[in-house]
Amino acid sequence: MTYKIPISVKGVVFEENSVWLRKNQRGEWELPGGKIEEGEQPMETVKREIFEELGFEVEVAKLIHAWIYTVQSSPDEFEGVLVITYLCRLQKKSGSFEIEGESGIAEFAKFKIDEIEKLNMPDFYKKAIELAIEC
Length: 135
Hints:
Helix content: 10-25%
Structural class: alpha+beta
Number of domains: 1
């Protein structure tokens, strides 16, 4: 039996010693990004998703983290989702923030690095941010 799970690609985007995050429908903060579309490569996905969500053009710098995360309340992630995270460098702010996304009302915020530990956020995202800081 083959183990099949969705793939989500996220980006760590720093600006002014802070990192950009999105609040999800579960009330958790997470990195911006989303699921791979058919025929798309992971690096294309993260660039597309960050532009769609934040209106930012980014350069994908480095793969920094991968984690399988289970979301019990999700219709397609209850058996796990592979979350691939890249360090992305902000090139240009050319669009606008997404107001309502695929999973409802969108909320984005920039947090100072020392605020991350206190946020309601899965630990693997905190680890990815920590690894990105080290790059």
